[in-house]
Amino acid sequence: MTTVRLPLFPLNSVLFPGLVLPLNVFEERYRAMMRELLKTPEEEPRRFAVVAIRDGHEVAPSLPGLPDPTAVPERGAAEGFGADPAKALHRVGCVADAATIRERADGTFEVLATGTTRVRLLSVDASGPFLVAELEHLGEEPGDEAGALAEGVLRAFRQYQKRLAGARERSLTTGAELPDEPGVVSYLVAAAMMLDIPTKQRLLQAPDTASRLRDELKLLRTETSVIRTLPSLPAAELTRGPTSLN
């Protein structure tokens, strides 16, 4: 089993390999993480792991009564995640490679990273200024009929886009060609669909590409049917990922 220790950035979102992650980093524990990553030479990858939060808070209270009137400020790397941070986090996440880490005059950071590979969370160390995780790299097999499934998912995804565009009475055309490599298709569609975190997490940790594509095909057909029934359903840009407050 190949393991690696990396800084850990929990988020209220799921990062998929190949997808871009913009971050606005303002909490001290994550600012400390970025300062540490900046010590890595530019020619080397500046990597950290992203995991979705199962039970906890992405942004911990920083002042009495903010944002919750009953909140008491917490301190330390594990603030907002309880005594055992690992229990508050999903067990499968994604390594992020920070292409840009720019420090602002006020000490906050603007970060642009890209998901690279899936990892399994083995343990979390909260003894330092930020969380550090012991991680196991997760490979991925294509599975049976991944190519044919990817074609079906792409067709269903285009229909989903059209229905969603109609719900907003505007075009979602990006002008870019969608990929045809099954693994890339599976991650792009998983990230682009309007799904809750548990569903996106399920897609991230699928045992193989074909399994993820089969799940996506069912979801696309269901969601398209819902949008057809409820044409006023609100939507979001399909080609943009959420920007974390952190």
Automatic annotation (TrEMBL):
Family annotation (PROSITE patterns): LON_N
Coiled coil: none
Stretches assigned to the Lon N-terminal domain: 6-224
Segments passing through the bilayer: none
SMART domains, per database record: LON (SM00464)
Superkingdom, natural source: Bacteria
Database matches in Gene3D superfamilies: 1.20.58.1480, LON domain-like (2.30.130.40)
Short name of one Pfam family: LON_substr_bdg
PANTHER family xrefs: ATP-DEPENDENT PROTEASE LA (LON) DOMAIN PROTEIN
Name of the protein: LON peptidase substrate-binding domain-containing protein
Native organism: Streptomyces ziwulingensis
